[in-house]
Specification:
alpha+beta; 5-stranded mixed β-sheet; 4-stranded mixed β-sheet; about 35% helix; globular
């Protein structure tokens, strides 16, 4: 058995890298030779199926042939190569309820109205630009697709179970016609807005919907919605491929295993899960939360989130350069991109150490048809990124990859469970991880067959409950597609665009430069120009000091509200100056203006008792300090959920003596 597994290791690695046994050295770093995460997951699954009980985390932590051959010899199990059930021998009967995963349960809870960042389905919306389609053929193809994949007929219940309906309940093909409309683009956008935020009734509906918009005899738009309770990213690829074949009239071979049987045969043992739980609980008190990004409103104020997408395509040559630079230092493509993403976020985040939420798509090849199954195989893991002192991509990517390789070995206790535990420990201020990085590298998302039948993918949007920002990367026939889906009610569109542009700039930089080079300046050009103007020696500062202009305004508008505290408003300017005196004096500033105001206006409010006093006052908008041009100087309110964006605050020049 052990020698069979040793042979299998060499065969699989050689096939995936296109190398012969003679070209593979025992000490070669296989990631440096080009193996990706999905390749390693597949090798781990095939070895397990053939009797060698080895995990993805063990292989990715020791990516050389010598280690893998030792694993193959030492871990060879006595079970047959067909695999064995891990959760008992009870068979799932058709129509019986079956338990859903923790990720599916989180999607269910988040889609409900009234939840923070909820009220939305976890779904993928796609548009294809077709020439002309036969509507009757397409409708029949969709019906056959739903019959072929049981999870599209799943009904989910609040008790944490799902069951499969026997019959298709899809309502059939809806067709919109905008030929001859006065403003067809406006009509199309209205249809898009309705469908891109669709929420299925998961207790009644089939979990896929296909519709058409006929624009002209030679142009039709196909709209596809898939609820991700029933499908992960690879499943969507399977659905699109199968739909193209069914539309063409191809008879597809039946799938010999379903998701319920897969889950039964690949369950995690209780001992392993308890060990993983202990690992995370030992770390949990020192874990950060997600990035503290500048928001328009508190997260809890958004009860039904809607997402907006931004995309950028890295061309094939640049992506090949990026991949090669990572390969030379043993960093995977995914982790290289994740590190650039983290660094870009840190430019806007108040906290430089934070968590990213990473989906894992690990299908264990226990059967030849596993890759044909449509379901949600997703698990989630929380990845720490410490960007505070990371100077270069080499440093940050190596740090994050090392952390990932250690954590993924304990992924049976996933992000959902870890966040739930964090919530229990800090119920008044639970840590969250609403920023996602999803790597879908490994297979081209839209195959040539799908594009030949339905035309190019022209629009896509993914929405996920309890997520603020979801970054997905996809293999594209012309390179790598970078996509950000964000909640526009929280992230200002202008700020989101600046963040995305800065991120894409950094990716391009490391496509062309060595990863040991320091990170490029990610400050947006408009903000760099504003700072340069504010710091220019020739800038007109208006003369005097900042607090001097405040005093002058206070004297000119004595009746205006000056300070607010404990729901009390103090309209006496004298009172405001008395409270500010200790802070001004402590800074060593001359107090001529203060003395002038004190002489002219007797004080009615008790003055601060010492220079160390720190009165907590809120300055009303009417008294906000102003620039010489009249615009308000930015101020930090201390509330991270709605503060001004830190990079946008010009660094003011001081004219103090």
């Amino acid at each position: 058995m052990s020698e069979v597994c040793v042979e299998l290791v060499g065969k699989l690695v050689g096939e995936m890298l296109g190398l012969s046994k003679e070209e593979l050295s025992p000490s070669d770093n296989l990631i440096s030779l080009g193996l990706g995460s999905l390749d390693i997951m597949r090798i781990a699954g095939l070895l397990t199926k053939n009797g060698c009980n080895v995990t993805f985390s063990e292989l990715v932590s020791n990516p050389c042939m010598a280690s893998w051959v030792n694993f193959a010899r030492e871990r060879s199990a006595r079970s047959s190569s067909n695999g064995s059930p891990l959760l008992g021998s009870a068979n799932y009967s058709k129509g019986d309820p079956f338990p859903i995963t923790s990720v599916q349960h989180a999607y269910m809870v988040g889609r409900r109205d009234g939840q923070e960042l909820g009220g939305t389905a976890c779904h993928a919306y796609m548009e294809f630009e077709c020439g002309s389609l036969d509507a009757a053929k397409l409708e029949r193809a969709v019906e056959l697709l739903i019959l072929r994949h049981p999870m599209l007929r799943a009904r989910f219940s609040d008790d944490g179970t799902a069951r499969i309906e026997d019959k298709v309940t899809w309502k059939g093909l809806t067709t919109y016609r905008v030929e001859g409309a006065g403003n067809p683009d406006s009509r199309i956008e209205g249809i898009r807005q309705e469908l891109s935020h669709l929420r299925f009734d998961i207790e009644q509906d089939d979990l896929i919907d296909v519709r058409l918009t006929v624009v002209s005899p030679k142009r039709t738009i196909m709209h596809i919605n898939v609820d991700l309770l029933a499908a992960d990213v690879l499943s969507i690829q399977v659905l699109l491929e199968d739909l193209a074949h069914l539309y063409d009239g191809t008879d597809l071979a039946p799938i010999e295993i379903d998701f319920m049987e897969y889950a039964r045969r690949t369950g995690i043992g209780e001992d392993a899960r308890n060990e993983d739980r202990e690992y995370w609980l030992n770390r949990i008190d020192n874990m950060p939360g997600g990035p503290s990004l500048p928001l328009k409103a508190p997260m809890e104020s958004v009860k039904r989130s809607q997402f907006t997408r931004m995309e950028y395509l890295i061309d094939s040559k640049s992506w090949k350069n990026f991949t090669e630079k990572g390969r030379q230092i043993g960093v995977t493509q995914s982790m290289g991109i994740a590190a650039v993403y983290a660094k870009a976020l840190s430019r806007w985040s108040e906290d430089k150490k934070f968590l990213l939420n990473l989906p894992l798509f690990n299908r264990k090849p226990i059967h030849p048809d596993v890759d044909k199954i449509v379901s949600d195989f997703t698990s989630l893991i929380l990845l720490e990124a410490d960007c505070a002192n990371a100077i270069s991509l080499l440093e940050l990517a190596s740090q994050m990859q090392g952390r990932f390789q250690q954590d993924v070995a304990h992924s049976s206790f996933g992000a959902v469970e870890v966040l739930r535990e964090l919530s229990h420990r800090c119920p008044n201020d639970p840590k969250k991880a609403p920023v996602v990085f999803a790597s879908n590298i490994g297979t081209q998302f839209i195959s040539n067959k799908v594009e030949d039948v339905f035309g190019p993918l022209s629009k896509m949007l993914a929405e996920t409950p309890q997520v603020l920002l979801d970054h997905q990367i996809y293999d594209h026939k012309n390179g790598l597609l970078l996509a950000w889906d964000y909640v526009s009610e929280l992230l200002d569109d202008k700020i989101a665009k600046q963040m995305f542009e800065a991120y894409c700039t950094a990716v391009r930089f490391y496509c062309e430069n060595d990863w040991s080079e320091p990170f490029p300046d990610l400050l947006p050009p408009s903000q760099r120009a504003a700072r340069a103007e504010a710091n220019s020696e020739g800038a007109d500062l208006g003369g005097g000091t900042l607090h001097g202009r405040f005093f002058a305004r206070a004297q000119a508008e004595q009746a205006a509200a000056a300070l607010e505290k404990d729901q009390k408003t103090l309209s006496s300017t004298d009172t405001a100056l008395a409270q500010l005196e200790p802070q001004i004096t402590a800074c060593g500033e001359p107090n001529a203006e203060l003395e002038s105001c004190r002489t002219a206006h007797p004080l009615s409010w008790p003055k601060a008792s010492s220079r160390t006093a720190k009165p907590c006052w809120t300055i009303p908008p009417a008294c906000t300090p102003r620039k010489p041009n009249g615009s308000a100087l930015p101020m930090n309110t201390g509330k991270s959920s709605s503060r001004p964006m830190p990079p946008s605050i010009p660094a003011p020049r001081c004219s103090a003596p």
